[in-house]
Amino acid sequence: MSKFVVSARKYRPIRFDEVVGQQHVSQTLKNALQNDHLAHAFLFCGPRGVGKTTCARILAKVLNCTNRTADFEPCDECNSCKAFNENASFNITELDAASNNSVEHIRTLVEQVRFQPQQGEYKVFIIDEVHMLSQAAFNAFLKTLEEPPSYAIFILATTEKHKIIPTILSRCQIFDFKRIQVQDTVKHLQGICAEEGIEADKDALHIIAQKADGALRDALSIFDRIVSFSGKKITYDDVITNLNVLDYDYFFKVTDAMMVEDLSSLFLIFDKIQKNGFEADLFINGLAEHFRNVLVCKDEATLQLLEVSDNLKERYKSQAKIAPTSFLLSALNIANECDVNYKMARNKRLHVEMALVKMAYINRATTLSQNTVVEKKTVDAPVARAKQNTSAPVITAQKAVEPIQPKATTPPPAPTIEIPVTPPSENKASIPVSPPTGKLGISLSSKYNIASVPKKEDLQSQVNEEIAQTIDSVSQLNPENLEATWKAYSEQITSPSVKSVFKHSEVIIVDEDSILIKVGSAMGKGMVQQEYELMDFIRTSLKHPKLVLKVEIDATKAPVINKPKPTKLSTPAEKYNKVIEMNPKVEELRKRFDLKLDKDN
């Protein structure tokens, strides 16, 4: 049985040109070698599995290579390169700072810096996970890192740059490694499949690359797992089954069901997803990402943001032609709200199902809203045209219905009248024209149609009430009536505290249109102001519809509470008598045990 080597080690790059997705770092290092502008300390920082340690080892290998290529790559034929490939090079020292993070380990490293290389020009020290060094170890390393010997080069690698102290950062040349793009990962996996003789669907490799989240080492580990599961043929179904990934097809079916308001299909698809072991929040997040991808496909310029295979791109483009932009934006908003409130929901399944129902009826709600806007614009169009026409502006409105009309079985259609409006002068500011009103105060705006006109009986009753109010509108505001009205309202109050405030308040007539209420405190003022029915009661009782109420604070109106002063008990006998008064059984207890009081001092 042959010894298996994982793909992350077997296909680890040994040249700068083989590094995936970090061309900006590789080209910068090669230019520095070409121009002989190589720094003495480097800091490689970035996410896991993107090639930091790999680039550090390639740089260390190139520095001591005695037969570099024309593009400054290692030759892999000289003694230095062969020693490096066999892990037998004395010029390259690798230190794992995660397990060697004390001052003693750094001091040992500094002692090794003092010795010159036996062969080659440089001694390279690679410190991985350098952010794990202790504060004392960093301080012990500072002087050596700032002024090392000419033959010493330090390469530090870390995934957490923010944990490194600024004095270390200032002594290093920093290279930021970026996450590897999905397309670059897929291309690298296709090359490995060709080397290994594996047949793989491109969609399956895309799923692996997306699951790796920008880390090539993770992608290779997932690839090895899928190969162990599927053998020499990797299919899309095998990948989503092994990785427990929601199939894209679910989201396409859900969106199609929403377009036709098919709630039954929505609930059945969601039920199937949950039976397959997927959590509801994972589904709602995937659905939101699906809507985002469909929205991206609305414009050809943003298609490059879609990190999926060509087959899926065509499906997204086809669905983007069917799904309106308003639907996608509203659905994204609903999905986001559902995700935010998911953890607080008691019935999580119902919470997600309600979000799906809302999404299914987005198109209907949008259509109703648009129809309402169109109807409003159509009805108000004559008024708008009248305002825009400065030569002869007119306002078209429906004629008001008179209170008394001849009997008719069917009401005739409302005729329109034109009311001329004087055009604004050039030297005067234009005054907006408001629709006229009829005798009963009914606006003649064009939004009133025949269906909204009240019945004749209602109009006649409204006329009679207005006439009665006009006849009986003589104000009865005088001190006697005001005092009687105030007392009558006070008797209706049920709250004792509010009733007390009203009882001690004073009501004064300021003028013919206003009265003043004086209360004893700010709390009393708030209580009076919160009696919302008070003003209507006074206006109705005094038949003064324009009466204004004012409230002021007057400390003299505060109710006086006479509390009896507590009697000071000075002698034990007085105290004992007070206790007996509160609890007579104490005396029985004293007699039973034959107790005596202390003598008075």
| Proportion of strand residues | 5-15%
Average pLDDT level? 80
Main-sheet strand order equals 2-3-4-1-5
Quantity of strands, as a count: 12
Main beta-sheet annotation: 5 strands, parallel
State the secondary-structure class.
alpha/beta
Number of helices: 25
Give the CATH class of one domain: Alpha Beta
* Envelope shape: extended
Tell me the helix content.
40-55%
Tell me the layout of helices and strands.
Layout: H1 7-10, H2 23-35, E1 41-45, H3 52-63, H4 79-85, E2 92-96, H5 103-113, E3 123-128, H6 135-146, E4 152-158, H7 166-169, E5 173-176, H8 182-196, E6 199-200, H9 202-212, H10 216-230, E7 233-234, H11 236-243, H12 248-259, H13 263-275, H14 280-296, H15 310-322, H16 325-340, H17 348-360, H18 362-388, E8 394-398, E9 416-420, H19 456-471, H20 479-492, H21 496-504, E10 506-511, E11 514-519, H22 522-529, H23 534-542, E12 548-553, H24 572-582, H25 585-592
Parallel strand pairs: 1-4, 1-5, 2-3, 3-4, 6-7, 11-12
Antiparallel strand pairs: 8-9, 10-11
Helix pairs in contact: 5-6, 8-9, 9-10, 9-11, 12-13, 12-14, 12-15, 13-17, 14-16, 16-17, 20-23
Brief characterization of the structure:
This protein is of the alpha/beta class and 601 residues long. It contains 25 helices and twelve strands. Among the domains are: 7-178, P-loop containing nucleotide triphosphate hydrolases (Rossmann fold); 246-380, Zinc Finger, Delta Prime, domain 3 (Up-down Bundle), CATH 1.20.272; 479-557, DnaA, N-terminal domain (GMP Synthetase, Chain A, domain 3, 2-Layer Sandwich), CATH 3.30.300.180; 569-601, no CATH class.
